[in-house]
Design brief:
Chain lengths: 215, 137
């Protein structure tokens, strides 16, 4: 491979921007994700505020669910906040050359991500159960075709959950590299880029949790 | 033939730290984590009292001694405080939490202004969308 070509596309290069290519790329990607989630969250807000009689069932369906599931959702918020601080702790550890603590923090982040996905599954089951018990909808995702709240809820949290699942997959890749000894105090790009993605996922949940459960 | 060093891959190069290496300290990160957790408790607690859709706190029913006080403050809040104020205060807390994550965990505070612009543009567009949503339900 031509070395000049390879050098042009190095991740850590800063061609005129003063920011490394990988970081710039990740931030631009996250900016596009802001728009994506803004669209989903806007749907929830618009339905929630709509004074139309039929659409008001949105709030009617949400109330019993929010009442039952708020503790699960709050736990999920705690889990993601803690997993975010675990990631920055891992970066802090590798900056100080502490390989062992870096791996410990990354493993804790993985546990957090897995716990979030499990809880989210519980929340989905809870919503399906409540729609069935209190409003007579069929069990399972049938509520999503008959209840505006369920449709908005499953879509928004489903896409967010997908992002978390992708984050967990990325983290597994980072962990494999960490155990291989790829990271040093001067070289930990992958963890930093993963961290940016993970914090963004946490950020979206903070907003989504407020909009879905508290407003 | 001269030997050349072939790059091993895009992510294998040494990281240059001059931009955001200083970042925050380990202690600062954990202080922010505690602030975020407390803000969450505050949010959920406020929502419980102001909206009356949740049991005492976060779905946990009130102990009998507190039940009456909670019901009274709940009734007062529902009667006095408008939905807009409730929504506004919840969103304010959420935005403060989000700002802490972006500025400190994502290191935006220590990054070059270009990144601020890149991240600010979609938020500007989203704000326009949010205003349109609230003005035209």
């Amino acid at each position: 491979m031509d070395i000049t070509v390879a050098r042009k596309f190095r991740a850590n290069q800063e061609p005129g921007t003063g920011i490394s290519n990988d970081k710039l790329g990740m931030w631009i990607f996250l900016a596009s994700e802001v728009i994506f989630f803004a669209a989903l969250i806007s749907v929830v807000v618009a339905l929630s505020l709509n004074p139309n009689e039929e659409v008001n069932l949105f709030r009617e369906h949400r109330e019993p669910y929010a009442r039952k599931a708020i503790i699960l959702a709050t736990t999920n918020t705690f889990v993601l906040i803690l997993s975010s601080v675990f990631v920055v702790s891992a970066i802090d550890a590798i900056q100080k050359g502490n390989q062992r603590m870096m791996k410990v923090w990354l493993w804790l982040t993985l546990i957090g991500g897995a716990a979030f996905l499990y809880n989210q599954g519980q929340e989905w089951a809870e919503l399906s159960h409540i729609l069935h018990e209190e409003f007579g909808f069929a069990e399972g995702f049938a509520g999503g075709t008959e209840s505006l709240f369920a449709a908005a809820f499953y879509t928004a949290t489903g896409f967010h959950g997908l992002h978390v699942a992708i984050g967990v997959a990325l983290l597994l890749y980072v962990l494999v590299r960490a155990h291989r000894g790829d990271f040093t105090a001067r070289r930990y790009n992958a963890i930093e880029m993963f961290g940016l993605y993970w914090h963004f996922v946490d950020l979206v949940w903070i907003i989504l949790f407020t909009i879905l459960y508290l407003i | 033939m001269a030997t050349t060093t072939i790059s091993k891959g895009l992510a294998e190069q040494p990281v240059e730290h001059h931009d955001a290496h200083h970042g925050g300290s380990f202690r600062l990160y954990w202080v922010i984590a505690i602030i975020l957790l407390l803000a969450t408790v505050l949010e959920v607690g406020l929502a419980s009292v102001l909206k009356g859709e949740l049991e005492c706190v976060a779905g946990i029913p009130c102990p009998p001694a507190l039940a009456e006080t909670f019901e009274q403050s709940n009734a007062w809040a529902i009667a006095t405080i408008s939905d807009g104020v409730v929504a506004g205060s919840m969103m304010t807390i959420a935005i403060v939490k989000a700002a802490l994550v972006i500025l400190y965990y994502m290191h935006l505070r220590y990054e070059k202004k270009l990144l601020w612009v890149i991240f600010a543009i979609p938020f500007g567009l989203v704000s326009l969308l949010a205003i349109a949503m609230f003005l035209n339900p």
